[in-house]
Specification:
single chain; 252 residues; mainly beta; Elongation Factor Tu (Ef-tu), domain 3; conserved putative lor/sdh protein from methanococcus maripaludis s2 fold; 2 domains; five-stranded antiparallel β-sheet; three-stranded antiparallel β-sheet; elongated
Length: 252
């Protein structure tokens, strides 16, 4: 009755380790309180993949300039947090917050922390549960769009070349330099300018100069464009039925 504890933030009480009329000492844990205004999720990614998210047009940064604000500017990314559960799929829009100070010693991966704001306000009963402490999640980091890129299905790259059709509908081997691959697509640095007719099936045997009767694969084209544009990562917009419980719509 002589003690009143005021939390400095809106919270949900977890484990309580004290009883009524109990004496406590300095530094003793009394209870756990989880912030309901923000939930942080930590994700790891190899440095080779993290490099593609970094936006550093000047290509320079001194140690003194590498402040937390500088890190947020360099990692100008969106994030989507998904509950890794097949029986109740749920997504939340998140924002990049910070990177850990060191690499993981075993995986040599960089740990990045993203935050989901007001997860309890985004609850949709039976559809989107609250994002609780300890939930196993999948994090997708979305970098800034790279305009004027040549993308092709990744399976069409045969070592250092692809197969294309010339103006006479004949098969030609075209050397290419792949910038990186991701998902179902590959980004071409050199060798293709866009607009070429690409052989997407596996020609066997592939005889250069052979006459080809092409058939367009529109389904594959749509799938690769969707994958490269990130259109499948858009969050569903709330309907009138669940508008009251869903404050997070789609930004895409």
């Amino acid at each position: 009755k002589h003690t009143e504890i005021r939390a400095p933030f809106h919270c949900r009480i977890g484990t309580v380790t004290l009883d009524v009329d109990q004496y406590v000492g300095t530094g003793q844990d009394l209870f756990e309180a989880y912030n309901i205004d923000l939930v942080e999720v930590e994700a790891q990614a190899p440095m080779s993949e993290v490099r593609r998210l970094i936006q550093n047009e000047s290509q320079t940064a001194s140690l003194e300039e590498f402040s937390m604000q500088r890190v947020r500017d360099v990692f100008n990314v969106r994030a989507v947090v998904e509950m890794a559960s097949s029986d109740m799929p749920a997504r939340w829009e998140a924002r990049f917050m910070r990177v850990r100070e060191s690499l993981d010693l075993q995986t040599r991966s960089l740990s990045m922390v993203v935050g989901v704001d007001d997860p309890y306000e985004q609850v949709i009963p039976g559809i989107r549960p609250p994002l609780l402490q300890g939930t196993y999640c999948r994090v997708t980091l979305i970098g800034q769009a790279r305009p004027n890129q040549v993308i092709i299905p990744r399976h069409t790259v045969h070592g250092s070349h692809v197969y294309v059709l010339d103006d006479e509908q004949r098969l030609r081997k075209q050397p290419v330099d792949v910038a990186f691959v991701q998902g179902e697509f590959a980004v071409i640095r050199n060798g293709l300018t866009g607009g070429e007719k690409l052989i997407v099936s596996d020609p066997a045997p592939a005889v250069e100069g052979m006459l080809i009767d092409p058939v367009a694969d529109d389904e594959l084209l749509d799938r690769v464009v969707t994958d490269a544009s990130g259109a499948d990562l858009a969050l569903p917009t709330a309907t009138n039925q669940d508008q009251a419980g869903n404050t997070g719509g789609s930004d895409d």
